[in-house]
Every structure is written in C-alpha cells, then in structure tokens.
Amino acid sequence: MSTTMAKKETVSRKWYVLDAAGKPLGRLAVTAANLLRGKNKVDFTPNVDCGDFVIIVNADKAVLTGRKLDQKLYRTHSRYIGSLKEVKYSKLMESRPQLAVELAVKGMLGKNSLGREQLTRLRVYAGPEHKHAAQQPEAYVD
Prior knowledge:
CATH 3.90.1180.10; 5 helices; 16% strand
C-alpha cells in the first residue's frame, strides 16, 4: 500500500463561504481552521500548506454561549510597564466582531510559520456582503 504526500506546487485551492449567523463562535472557528488546514481533503499532509480559502460573513451575529460575553476578556500588552489592556467580549463583539472571529480561528491553527501562512487565507466580514465574488466561492454546509 502506498501513501500519497501532497506537494505545495500541486495543491488546488477552493474558496468557501461560512455564514456565522446564529452559530457558536468556537464551532465556527473549528470549521474554518479545518478548511484552512485542508483536513477535509483526501491528500491532507500535516507538513504541507494544502488548505483552502475561507470567507466568513455575518461575524457580528456569531454567538458566544454561557456567560462568555461578560467573563471572557481580550487582553493586549505592549510590553511596557502598566500597559495591559483588557476588553470584555461583549464590547469587542459590538465594536470589532471581525477581530474576535480571527482570534478564535488563529488559536486553533498551529503556532508556527505554517499556521501563520494558513491564516493569510482567512477573510472575515461583519456583514453579509463580501468582495470575493470573482473567485466564485461556494457555501460550505456542515
């Protein structure tokens, strides 16, 4: 029995649209991360970037279950003394829902150069409109 290993030059990429309206943020991020990694493909190879492009629309309508809106915090630090900034996810989802979705997907990808390269194929939009109609994306259904 032979094993096929994908090569970066031979990978064919598709465009998918994920609708975040009414879906939990974590489950949406798992689906997006699997598509970005290429785990849905037959010739998936862990050390090769063989994933697809993902467009997430309606990011402002994603749902955080439980009490995460009030308890979960987005923290940034500039490495200067006293510069820790904390924002609750309720405020973050109102002002910048694209960032919340990007952070959720980023946390589910690898923490290396391959994960950073896969994250460049993610596009997130707060509303239902996106500007990638020329790529003929298809709606992804779980």
